[in-house]
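Please, structure for the following, as tokens.
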Amino acid sequence: MSQQHISLPAKLINGGIAGIVGVTCVFPIDLAKTRLQNQRAGQQVYKSMMDCLVKTVRSEGYFGMYRGAAVNLTLVTPEKAIKLAANDFFRHHLSKDGKGLTVFKEMLAGCGAGMCQVIITTPMEMLKIQLQDAGRLAAQQQKPGLMPATKLVATATVLSRSYNSGTVVSAPRSVSATQIAKELLYTQGIQGLYKGLGATLMRDVPFSVVYFPLFANLNRLGKPSPEASSPFYWAFLSGCVAGSTAAVAVNPCDVVKTRLQSLNKGSTEDTYNGVTDCVSKIMRKEGPSAFLKGAGCRALVIAPLFGIAQVMYFAGVGEYIVDNSPLSLLSA
């Protein structure tokens, strides 16, 4: 982030706006990533990201690409705001007398930010994945040769699983994120929304450890002088490069998280009892390459998200809103 002091409300606004704009732009790619990651060997419905998007539009319409977007748009503001603000908070308290941070301390600040954000990220991802993956299960059921005829009825066309029993009812129904959340809370309590928390930590903590120090050092290269700020285009590119690099680096953890959080599965798809069991079964049945499923999509999703976030900071959108809000006029 820029070196000047930025108030906490401004940081939250910057992170929130960046998250909303970014999610709106790249959500279809995120949907393709989820569906590609959940495909099993011998049951491929989609060949690539573009194939997934084209088939989604054909079968579900344009807005089918935005299944689960409402969850993200609602929760991405607190998630991104917590992540960016927490990183700044930890960087500030780890710095001594205004001196630059060592790489280790930058990584430590990123680690703290990653641990803070999972409070929002885990339930957000949990609900989003159920909605995103429903179309894949419907397409898998309709594609001839993928499943025995006797098992077709066992695969839900949309989310229709009893979330705590593992059984699937045959009558399809349209399900919203609110309904899923209520059912999970009723049947499993708060821990139902936090299924996959360990895998989420495994993904988000290393991501932040890689992203924030890498961004800070890349952004520093674009500064005309130590005291000056880097140009906005350099901040954007630094955010994109750091984001895509970190995204690909932790993609195996993202695959594990997606599999664990997918409550609704095809009749022949494995269920997993924790991170270790999931890793073991994927390695044994699909090979190491399965851990890189959706890596390209994830890089394309994360790069603009964090590039836009850095531009929001550079442009000072949050500071402008805070300075011109009625609350600031009252406190003046």
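Residues 103-142 form the longest helix (40 residues). The CA atoms of residues 323 and 329 lie 8 Å apart.
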